[in-house]
Design a protein that fits this description.
Layout (H helix, E strand, L loop, with lengths): L1 H14 L3 H17 L7 E4 L5 E4 L1 H8 L1 H17 L6 H17 L5 H27 L5 H4 L1 H14 L10 H7 L9 H19 L2 H10 L1 H6 L4 H27 L11 H11 L11 H20 L4 H18 L2 H30 L1
Antiparallel strand pairs: 1-2
């Protein structure tokens, strides 16, 4: 009996992480279907270039959440390894986007210049990520305080990179990255998210990075005794998040065909942190489920699209989002999870007792 209860408790601990984000998505889906049965319908229409593309609210949700999903992946690793959050991801994406545009404006926009621009902006973002990671891992500064430096000055750095201008980058290649590749009806940002997710899945499948990050987040002393360099693991988590910022910055620049250091991915760091929290991951570090963060990011975007579909004024959207997010975060809090686990265990115990009593009565 006791072993069975422990197994059930372990099952709840392992899989209840995804319960909250899945419940959030299901409730939003049900609400939208009741409000508008055709809310999630997907159609095919011709774009400005005459190519057939997918359209609809579902596509808008998947497409609009692309930058947030990618940043949430990196934020999950940083949170798990350091027990804190990076609040500079929006500013770092602005820096990466500015570097990307700077390279593209230096000459004709070709496939090679786009690749070179992305590689350079990725390197720059990873260097800044390493700077944040050094403050956290080597100098043991709390992550939110350490990243406050770049959060404060990052957009000014992005402003300086392009000389205070807001340059545009008009090119069929850039348009294809930000919208649709000719002949492919799925928005390119969705494809980029899929590729990024596959890369993370392969890394976790063929390396021990995920295990090392969780070990460092749970107990650095134990990790050190097992030969794991906690400083390097934390540093690597911030570097990976820097790479994610460069991808998000490139996507956003390509969507708009310009770089505006003041508005690019503004306040997205808060949504990324919320996606990690809604995904059932502990903000204190340790075990993580990246799938939960991805679902949490899509839940946030679905909520935003739902509010706009209900014609809620843009000035009120954040207030409504805050109310819903508070409910979701409280539902996923350790206190509520613990009480739910006890309730579930008591229900199981009561059911087993009822079954044994029924069996005794049948025998007698």
């Amino acid at each position: 009996m006791e072993k069975t209860m422990k197994k059930q408790s372990g099952f709840l601990t392992n899989y209840s992480q995804l319960l909250i984000p899945l419940i959030a998505v299901v409730l939003l889906v049900i609400f939208n279907l009741i409000r508008d049965p055709g809310f999630f319908s997907v159609g095919i229409a011709a774009n400005n270039n005459g190519f057939p593309v997918l359209q609809g609210n579902l596509i808008s949700i998947l497409n609009g959440a692309s930058e947030l999903v990618i940043l949430s992946m990196g934020m999950t690793l940083v949170t798990a390894a350091s027990g804190g959050q990076d609040i500079s991801v929006g500013a770092l994406a602005a820096i990466a986007g500015s570097v990307f545009v700077k390279v593209l404006k230096s000459g004709p926009i070709t496939g090679w210049s786009v690749i070179g621009g992305f590689v350079l902006c990725c390197v720059v973002a990873m260097i800044f990520g390493a700077f944040n990671g050094t403050l956290v891992a080597c100098f043991r500064i709390q992550p939110m305080i350490a990243t406050l430096i770049l959060f404060t000055c990052g957009r000014s750095v992005a402003y300086w990179i392009n000389g205070g201008a807001t340059p545009t980058v008009e090119s069929p290649i850039i348009t294809a990255i930000g919208s649709f590749i000719p002949g492919i009806p799925i928005p390119t940002p969705i494809l980029i998210v899929v590729v990024t997710g596959i890369i993370f899945a392969l890394i976790f499948r063929f390396t021990n990075l995920g295990l090392y990050i969780q070990t460092v987040g749970i107990n650095q002393g134990a990790a050190r005794l097992n030969g794991i360099n906690s400083i390097w693991i934390k540093l690597l988590a911030f570097i990976i998040l820097g790479a994610c910022c460069s991808i998000a910055g490139m996507i956003n620049v390509s969507r708009l065909s310009l770089i505006n250091h003041e508005t690019i991915l503004i306040n997205i760091e808060m949504d990324a942190i919320l996606a990690v929290a809604i995904g059932g991951n502990s903000l204190g570090g340790g075990k993580f489920r990246m799938v939960g963060s991805i679902i949490g990011a899509y839940a946030i975007q679905m909520l935003t699209i739902t509010l706009y579909a209900m014609k809620v004024p843009s000035t009120d959207v954040k207030a409504y989002k805050a109310i819903v997010i508070i409910i979701l975060v409280v539902m996923g809090s350790p206190v509520v999870k613990e009480k739910f686990g006890r309730f579930w265990s008591n229900m199981k115990r009561h059911r087993q007792r009822t079954g044994s009593l029924a069996g005794k009565e049948a025998q007698s």
